[in-house]
């Protein structure tokens, strides 16, 4: 389980910005443009059920992925509560999303996966590990925007949680955050934080993943 960066990440003032789901087309586009325009390092954890939104962004994101600036994690295909599913359904949720990620972005997400709603148990984690998803991605900071949040509340959370070594959770689900990119960048800049991918924070590599 990975809730936060290791001591070395704290010392290096790294933050891992991790952006999930993506059912708001305008938001996913804004994040892709942000990465392209600013060079900020981001990990996206999109669900394949939103492929109509994410597939058109592949041309923007692929070069950034190849450069190691952007990483893709597996957040399952349908964003269901895995603890309610059968073993076979859990495996299928991860494999279907992995297949979509490979087809769309040309890389594996292994070994990183994030359980939808943060809902995991021993069974989900063992099943995931059995197909190469050994690293369960949790978080210790959040923009609080999986559902609608005010700009004021989101900025409050950004100021509270953007600290050295934090794994920050955000969502491409509601446009609030897209109007706050400048303010968030200022917080990161003032605090001399360095946004990194999971590979950079935890020393994993795209070559450790294997396609099935
Ligand atoms: Zn999610």
Mean pLDDT: 96
Q: How many beta strands in the DSSP annotation?
A: 8
Low-pLDDT parts are: none
Q: Mind telling me which CATH architecture this is?
A: Alpha-Beta Barrel
Number of domains: 1
- Give me the Rg, rounded: 16 Å
CATH level 3 topology = TIM Barrel
| Topology as a string of helices (H) and strands (E) | HEHEHHEHEHEEHEHEH
**Please, how many helices?**
9
Bound molecules: zinc ion
Key terms:
212 residues, alpha/beta, TIM Barrel, six-stranded parallel sheet, two-stranded parallel ribbon, 41% helix, globular
Describe the structure.
- The protein is of the alpha/beta class.
- The protein has helices at 7-11, 25-38, 51-54, 58-66, 87-105, 122-130, 151-161, 181-190, 198-202, and strands at 14-21, 42-46, 70-72, 112-113, 135-136, 141-142, 167-171, 194-196.
- The protein has a single domain (7-203), classed as Alpha-Beta Barrel (TIM Barrel).
- Strands 1, 2, 3, 6, 7 and 8 form a six-stranded parallel beta sheet that branches. A two-stranded parallel ribbon has the order 4-5.
- The longest helix has 19 residues, at 87-105.
- The chain is globular.
- The mean pLDDT is 96.
- Bound molecules: zinc ion.
Question: Brief overview, please?
Answer:
The chain is of the alpha/beta class. The protein contains 9 helices and 8 strands.
